[in-house]
Amino acid sequence: MPRPERPLELDGTALVEFAVDLRRLRQDIGGPSYRELGKRGGYSATTLAEAAGGRRFPSLEVTLAYVRACDGDVELWEQRWHSLAAELNATVVAEPEDYDQAPYVGLSVYRAEDASRFFGRERLVDDLLALVQRQKFVAVFGPSGSGKSSLIRAGLLPRLPAHVLRTPGDHPMRLVPGFPSDQETVVVVDQFEEVFTLCQDADERTRFIAELLGRRAVIGVRSDFYTHCCMIPELAGALQDSQFTVGPMTAEELRRAITLPAVKANCTVESNLAATLIAHAHGQAGVLPLLSHALLETWRRRSGNRLTLTGFQAVGGIDGALAKTAEAVYGSLDARQQGRARDLFRRLAVLGENTEDTKRRISPAELDDDQDTAVVLDRCTAARLVVRDTDSIEITHEALIRTWPRFREWLSSDRDGQRVHRELTHATDVWEQLDRDRSALYRGARLAIAREWATRSQALTVRERAFVEASTDAEAEEHVLARRRAKRLGYLVGVLAALLVVSAVTTFYAVRTRNDITSQRNSAIAQNLASEAVVEHRANPSLGLQLGLAAHNLAATRKTRDAVLSTLATVVTAHDEEVYTATFSSDGTLATAGRDHSIHLWNVSDRRKPVRLGTLTGHTGAVRALSYRADGKVLASSGDDGTVRLWAEQKEIAALTGMGSVRAATFSPDGQTLVAGSGTGEVRTWNVSDPRNPVLTATVRGHTDAVRTVAFSLDGKTLATGSDDHSVRLWQDGAEIMSLSGNRIDVYDLAFSPDGRTLAVGSGNDKPVRLWNVTDPRKPAELPSLTGHEDVVGSVAFSPDGRTLASGSDDRTVRLWNVTDPGHVTEIATLSGAAIAVADIAFSPDGRTLVWTMFDPTMRLLNADLGAAVAEACGSAGARLTEDEWRRHVPDVPYTPPC
């Protein structure tokens, strides 16, 4: 017979009340023994009994296991556990200690003075020092958050006899006068990517790089700017033998980095906490600043001199600690200060162009000098979200961009407006540097764009507002002068001639051109109304569609038809974050995936009301590619977690690993072969005749950079691969037969036409869609390129009948092309209205539905038969456009409802 449970001493403390309620849960289900609870919950009877003992605070996992075993409300108890953890930890460290006494630096970079607490990279420091001693120029590459800056500053610099450390900023040549005159002192330039993100002068950038190449120098560069470096011939040449890569820490390196700083500060790290941290961080290249921040916050909540798993869980874990800190600071501000915080953090980031967003260093003079701004800066600095000195302000680490959802939302909304603001800020700086010279003011289209953005934003500072107002006044004065000159000239030259001409032709012209004038007026109004319809559709889809139909009714032009099509597309929120890829199975099931690590399956037989069929989970990083086997029974997925996963009947049946980030994967047409391209440039193939037991059949290495896209011809004989090394390569039987690299093509996507004769390439240069005749793949012939897109084309897809090619671009449009004759392609339609770049495009297997996804959580669906789409539009528009709405949008034309 089991021993009776020890009575609790009801002293009114929160921990005892927690234990009392746990015991009450057990009694509510009949009071089973702890041995029986252990069988249900997966923990020992002793562990579960101690959880309800009232002496020690149980871990979150043990608490939830106890609650599940008692059929309790898991979500409610998880919230209660976190509340109690916060309360108990607040009593452990009543006052936050000085950050300078902490054994961890949080988001900050380890500096030379932090060398005594910089652990885990000893071997890498030795290797880097040896390379610096051998080579005159060394480039240290690593992803954001891999610790390359700390490696350089706290690892390398203390071991160099003489050095100077700099960051480029927006004018890197200003650094050069401070460089040493001797050739022995090493010039160290950290955050070298700023020469691309902040420096706007290409000539200054080139001169600065030439200056570095003439000295002993070490540069630290984010790895996603490797391509930028390779585009400068002199720098690319210097990189041949001088690259040093910083990757993820090993488990042992992580253990040293976690435990030894604490030991040096006379603290200990619980073994289960160390094991949890290592498991979370192992193999993750960009996680180090998040790990350091989580450790710093755990140290502040330590129990005595012990860093505990409970304290770590209370701060939100590795992924949640930083966001929790940032949200706590944001929540402490009033509404006005929160607006200032949003504007501040937007200024502290540079929006990426085919790269991740990066941090930006600003001058304090860029901000308004008021109390609200001072409060925001003080609190963000105190929480180590921002670092500042007398000359600059910047976020502590770019990890804040990746992990704070609110920051990402601020940057993802109205990116075009933010770019307008950055250009306006730069123009204001130039204007003030030139003593407010009128010639530096905005005029014309730039002023109109800036004014339009300023009317819907509250982010302008006093100095920027003064610039816009001065520009407006200057343009108004110039217009007045221009009108006066035109008026005088008109009097001198044309008074008599005008009277004679008017009197001679007025009657004839009025009669003959009355209809033409009406038609031209309607056409002009229709063009404007079509543009308004696309914009209105974002906020009010029904009204946007009706305005598009009204425009098409006034003047049936290509532009008005495109407006109808753009507003007819069904917009669906498909994921929690950006949707990177979409593909159809042979039975018409749609699969989508993206940044939130999940794959959703959809029934889109009714384009207006897609139905989610299921969700596949298993990836631990963003999912970049999807491909169905021809029979539609097996789905392949690949992504940033370095795996290719196979799914059948909504269950994972195999996982292929060891490739680094995998952006491309596809089945051969016969379904017997799976091909994937890796971030290292490898292309691997597997025999998947038994998809539950894939067999690796080949690994080919022809590309020198990440493989972004792979595609098979319909007969399965030719494989095309596209890479960040600017080439498209064609393969047969595992051997390369042709490389399309003569024009240094920026390759983003590939697609073979159904007849196998044409290869379409989504590109990023002045010819965004390139076509090749690959009837003989050993002798491809380039066809005329397709122009019209104004930015990178990231996705291309042929319709099943091969008559139509769809292309999606960063210019936020999808264009459809008639490719019946690939040598004489014509554009069919331009679908616009999106607020962000297009990520992927797919046709349904019956060719009736076109789907495109965005770099946001949405996807759009449209009837691919464009004529039928326009014809059925009236039935989808709902109620007719009222006369009042008509007069508000079309005041100069009699009321003629569109449907």
Give the SSE layout.
Layout: H1 14-28, H2 34-41, H3 45-51, H4 60-69, H5 74-92, H6 122-134, E1 137-142, H7 148-156, E2 163-166, E3 186-189, H8 194-197, H9 202-213, E4 217-222, H10 226-230, H11 233-238, E5 243-245, H12 251-264, E6 268-269, H13 271-281, H14 288-300, E7 306-307, H15 309-314, H16 317-331, H17 335-347, E8 349-350, E9 358-359, H18 371-382, E10 386-388, E11 393-395, H19 399-403, H20 405-412, H21 415-433, H22 444-455, H23 462-539, H24 541-554, H25 558-568, E12 570-573, E13 579-584, E14 589-594, E15 599-603, E16 611-616, E17 623-628, E18 634-639, E19 644-648, E20 651-656, E21 662-667, E22 673-678, E23 682-687, E24 695-701, E25 707-712, E26 719-723, E27 728-732, E28 735-740, E29 747-752, E30 758-763, E31 769-773, E32 781-786, E33 793-798, E34 804-809, E35 814-818, E36 826-831, E37 838-843, E38 849-854, E39 858-863, H26 866-871, H27 873-876, H28 883-889
Parallel strand pairs: 1-4, 1-5, 2-3, 3-4, 6-7
Antiparallel strand pairs: 8-9, 10-11, 12-39, 13-14, 14-15, 15-16, 17-18, 18-19, 19-20, 21-22, 22-23, 23-24, 25-26, 26-27, 27-28, 29-30, 30-31, 31-32, 33-34, 34-35, 35-36, 37-38, 38-39
Domain HTH cro/C1-type: 21-77
Transmembrane segments: 489-511
Keywords: Membrane, Repeat, Transmembrane, Transmembrane helix, WD repeat
